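Model it.
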Amino acid sequence: MKRRAAIQGLLAVPAMGLVSWRGAEALPATPACADDHEPTPEQTAGPFFKARSPQRVSLLEPGLPGPRLVLGGRVLTTACAPVPRALLDFWHTDDAGQYDLSGFRCRGHQFADASGRFRLETIVPGAYSGRPRHIHVRVQAPGGPILTTQLYFPGEARNAGDGLFSPRLLMEVTEAGGERRGTFDFVLQGRR
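Modeled.
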């Protein structure tokens, strides 16, 4: 009986470290970070990039139809450290698959917070002429090189036939209450 009590006592010690002093609140989980954090693959910007997009975290505008999407994630180094103040410049089509070439509809840039986190409110872009739905993005650490890439939606029939599609650029997408939530972490090369 003494042996069983001793083993139970030893097993309880690590679990006690997960509970606060008051015993009522669990500590938040440590974010996971893979040891083999490879840089996010580059892709073409395509012909529709426009410089000097407005700084904003929401691309939603009155009269902009389409299912809502909230995209969030982090900008990290290959060593899994956050990249504070990373510049993220997003652009995509409207829900009819058209890019705005005269203004800045569905275009905007923002800066990651001190923890490398970003959050973008927008719509699900439309597909066009053989391309699957995708979101263009340029990501740049302060003073670093620019990563230009595209993010893709899982389950799109056109993904398989697209010459640019990469499964490494798939967002994780969930749906709740009529709103889609996408997640993607960008990893910048050469930063420690």
